[in-house]
Write a structure and sequence with these properties.
The protein is α+β, with helices and mostly antiparallel strands. The chain is 32% helix and 26% strand. The protein has 3 helices and 10 strands.
Length: 233
């Protein structure tokens, strides 16, 4: 996400410069070449230098934009060497999660209904079980679906990966600050599409190790059904 923000900033600078240049050029043309100021207009029909410039400058601008764009696209699609893996399976309408590197336990994450929300919890974004991940750790996220196409998307991570039945797609995250991050399914997967949020809690590596140890006994790894909600803090 940091690279996406940097690329967006570059685009804003380029756009601002182009808009400013074109605006000033239009104002100059209006003031310099109107009928009153220029009663004897030039009959020039070609200017080699001008034509080269107005062809070359846009090409240079496109190169300036394209190089970092391809870099970000490559960075998004190529997973670096991961320190751990989780699997997210989209279902109508909740998410199943598995931790294959930590005993293979799994659980389901359902949206908390409005009438069960506690103070501080966010409506339509809070789940009964959070995905707990350690900070400063490269995490491979395997995304699939059990029925229709879903999409695992967390805007703060710059991640949006489709989950397709019968296929496993791959993305990755590396969280640098502890906290709670929210996302939602970003595919129109049915009538309750807007009610299958994603809640990720990032904790220190020490707290994650404690949570993972407790989760092995708190969740039923065989069925993937949660036995009891287990807070990380």
């Amino acid at each position: 996400m940091e690279q996406l923000i940097s690329f967006h900033t570059l685009l804003l600078v380029v756009i601002a410069l182009v808009v400013a240049f074109v605006t000033l050029l239009l104002l100059y043309v209006v003031a310099r070449y109107n009928a009153k100021s220029n009663p004897n207009p030039s009959r020039t029909s070609h200017n080699t230098l001008l034509e080269v410039v107005w062809t070359a400058v846009p090409v240079i601008i496109l190169i300036v934009v394209a190089v970092p764009s391809f870099r970000v696209l490559y960075f998004l699609e190529v997973t670096p060497e991961a320190e751990m893996t989780i699997k997210a399976t989209g279902r109508q309408w909740y998410w199943d999660y598995e931790y294959p590197d930590h005993g293979g336990f799994g659980f389901s994450a359902y949206m908390i209904p409005d009438n069960e929300l506690k103070p501080g919890q966010k409506r339509l974004l809070e789940t009964d079980n959070r995905v707990v991940l350690p900070v400063n750790t490269t995490v491979r996220v395997l995304v699939t679906a059990g029925d229709v196409i879903h999409s695992w998307a967390v805007p703060a991570f710059g991640v949006k990966k489709d989950g397709v039945p019968g296929r496993i797609n791959e993305t990755w995250v590396r969280i640098e600050r502890e906290g709670v991050y929210y996302g939602q399914c970003s595919e129109i997967c049915g009538t309750n599409h807007g009610y299958m949020p994603i809640t990720v809690e990032a904790v220190s590596k020490e707290k994650f190790a404690e949570w993972a140890a407790k989760a092995k006994t708190a969740f039923d790894a065989q069925s993937g059904r949660d036995v009891a909600a287990l807070p990380a803090r």
